Amino acid sequence: MRHHPARLNQHKRDGGAWSDEEIDDIVRGVVDGSLGDGQLGALLMAVCCRGMSARETARLTLAMRDSGRVLELGGIPGRKVDKHSTGGVGDKVSLCLAPLVAACGVPVPMISGRGLGHTGGTIDKLAAIPGYRTDLEPDDFVAVLRDCGFAMAGASAAIAPADRRMYAMRDVSGTVESIPLITASILSKKLAEGIDGLVMDVKCGRAAFMKELEQARALAQSLVSVGTAAGVRVTALLTDMDRPLGRAIGNHLEVLEAVQVLKGQGPADLNELTLALGVEMLLLAGETDAARARARLTRAIADGSALECLRRNVVRQDGDPRFLDEPKALGSAPVHLGVASPSEGHVVDVDPLALGLCAMDLGAGRLQPSDRVDPLVGILMLVERGARVTRGQPLAMVFARTQAAAMAALERVLAAIRIGSEAPPERPLVLARIGA
Ligand code: URA
User: Which residues partner with 349 through β-bridges?
Assistant: First the structure.
C-alpha cells in the first residue's frame, strides 16, 4: 500500500475523511492482502463509529466494484434491471420475481447471496432444486441470461472480491451494521452485474437489519444516491419485516411457495410484494405507466408465460423441473408436526425473528459459515396475522429431521404466535418508496 494503514485508521478514528486516492489504496490493500486482518478490522470499526461522507461511500463502492470483473451486457438488448433485498424471513420474492419480470421482456441478471443468520438467502433456496447450478462463472451467467431472460447465481470469486474479504471481516468484528459499509457491499456486487436499473427492497422491523423506519430510510437514501451517482437508476421500497413474508420459511417450502405465486395461487402478501417490486422494475426498464406495468405482470402470470420462463431457466441451469408440476418431486422432511392453537381468538402477532431463528435451528440456515443447510426442514404457517382461530385449530406445520427437533420447534412456534381477543389493526406491507 502507498499509504500507511495505521495513519489512515487514525485519520478516520479522529473524524477525518479519506481522499479518493486513499480509498482506492485501501481497497487495493484489501484485495492483495497488504492490509492485514488487524488493520482491516480496526479500519472497519473506525468507519462504523465515524461514518463516511456520500463522496467517500460512492468512491468505496466503485473501488470495490472494480476490484473484480464487471459484466459486459451490451450484447443483450434492453435495459437490464435487478432487485435486491436487505434480507428477511420468508423472503422468496426473487425466485418468482426474476422469471415474472423476464417474461415481460426485461432481462434480469441476478447475483444473490447465501442466508445470513436468521435471514434466508436465494442461493440456499435454489439449492433445494435437485441439480440446479448456482456456481456459474461470468461467461456462463451471461449466456444463461441471453437464453432465458434471467440468470441466478452466487457471486463468483471474480465479482467484487474486495467485498468477500470485507464482508467476512465485518461478520466477525461486529461491524455489519454501518450504512456506508452496507451500501458499498450491496452496490459493489450489483453494479458489477452491468445493470441499468436496481430496485432495492429495504426491510424494516424486528427480523430486518434495520429495525426502525428512520434507519431503513437512511439506508434506502444512501443506496439510491450512491447508485444514481454511479450511473444506475435505483428505486427503493421500504417494506415491513415485522411479520414473515408469505407462509413458508425454509428452503424447499419457499421454492414451492414461489411457484404458487407464478401459478396465481400465492399468499396475498407475497403476491402483492412481488407485483409492487415488479412494477418498479418495469418502470426502470422504460415502462412509463405503473398501472400498465401491473397489468403486464398480471398477464404474464395468468397466461403461464412467467412459469414457463422459470421452467426454461431451471432446465438451462441443470435443475430437475419436475417440482414445477409435482411439488412432491422435491422430497419431504421425515417428521411433520402440527401446531394447534391453545385458545380461541385472533392472531394478533407472528414474530418473524422467532420463526427465523427456529427455522435456522431446525437446519434451514447456518450457525457457522461452513454449516450445511438442510433443504427440507422449515415451518409452514397455516394462518396469518389477523386471522380468527378456534381452540385446537392448526396454526402451523413444523418440518424436521427428528421427532426431538420437531418437538423443540413446536414450542418455539407456539410462543411466536400471539392469540388475543381483538383483531389487530391493519399494517401496510409497503411502508415508503424512495426514488432518485
Ligand atoms: N447484504 C450484503 O451483500 N451486504 C451487506 O452489508 C448487507 C447485506
Answer: 418
